[in-house]
């Protein structure tokens, strides 16, 4: 008896806008395969790359560029060719591109910041956020030192998750765990959010979309919509604006778990039928 389960082919979802940040292409931590799969799942009118897309800091030390990283860039170029407006907002790790700000390459814009108008009328400042990080702006040596410490945590994180996977456990972020529990890290995130909210008030925007701190979140800060894309090194998160103006925080792990539920139900039903 044939008990094969037939699964429907996934359809691309049409959305208004996608925001992704902190891909860090050119580093071993970049989860490029997941990102390429994510981008293939959506058709969008606008795609914002919110800084630290290419990691110039790491590439200065040596070239690491596997095919998966090229595939991400090819996917972005394909989206642009098919009509998606692509806005590349520079960050501190790709600050070498800031000298070319305001450059227009076909349907791709290179800028230091942008303003996005949502379907519901809200105007959002789109900026990487390193401009509001005192360490990045005033103590570059400390920023580089912190970058090395972060890279070490990523190596440790990969090792831990390798063994977690072998024993049947899901992905777990060491860095995110530490950020939530180390008081200074929590205070830094709070100060970062408040500084961006203050800037929006001063400039008359209803909200801000940013990255930089690898901490995805949607919340109100002093009456301002604060939206952080997160990253594609650990958490694999993005922001999605739907056609009605609603903005959703996308998390890769949660999305994949939800996608597998129908498969599990189908297999369970098939097993019950055989039994």
Strand order of the largest sheet: 4-5-3-2-1-11-12
- The CATH class: Alpha Beta
The radius of gyration over CA amounts to 20 Å
Broad structural category: alpha/beta
Number of strands: 12
Note the main sheet.
7 strands, mixed
Distance between the termini: 12 Å
Could you explain the architecture of this structure?
By secondary structure, this protein is α/β, with parallel strands linked by helices. The protein has a single domain, classed as Metallo-dependent phosphatases (Purple Acid Phosphatase, chain A, domain 2). The protein is 41% helix and 23% strand. The chain contains 8 helices and 12 strands. The chain has helices at residues 32-40, 56-59, 67-81, 134-138, 140-166, 174-181, 183-203, 252-274, and strands spanning 13-20, 42-50, 85-89, 103-105, 108-111, 113-117, 123-127, 207-210, 217-221, 224-228, 237-241, 247-251. It has a 7-stranded mixed sheet. It has a 5-stranded mixed sheet with strand order 6-7-8-10-9, with helices on one face. Strand 6 and strand 7 (123-127) form a beta hairpin. Helix 1 (32-40) runs parallel beside helix 3 and helix 6 (174-181) crosses helix 7. The longest helix is centred in the middle third of the chain and has 27 residues, at 140-166. It starts with 12 loop residues before the first strand and ends with a helix. The model is unreliable at 1-8 and 135-146 (pLDDT under 50).
